[in-house]
Amino acid sequence: MKVVGIRELKDHLSQYLRLARTGEPVLVADRGEVVAELRRVDPSTLSELPSGLASLVTQGNVSLGETNDPNAYPRMARLVKNLSVLQLLDEERSER
Prior knowledge:
The protein is of the alpha+beta class. It has a domain at about 1-65: YefM-like fold (3-Layer(aba) Sandwich), CATH 3.40.1620. The protein is about 40% helix and about 15% strand. The chain is built from five helices and three strands. A three-stranded mixed sheet has the order 1-2-3. The longest helix is centred in the C-terminal third of the chain and has 10 residues, at about 85-95. The protein is elongated.
């Protein structure tokens, strides 16, 4: 596994993409701290996607994120009353 700085990666991107394509992951470091990983896309991941999205990933126009963890987003308190839009508009207009 290679570790490369950002400037080196920018200067020799094609070389590092070839390494990733062959299956060797490349770790990207910013001032000595690893911040990203460049690796080959797992074909099984692409087979599970809708064909349009898979083609965008293959072209490099879209990158896939991680699975969504519902616990990462705390439940927020309701900011407005449980009213219809018309009721809220009426209330807003009457305050003026």
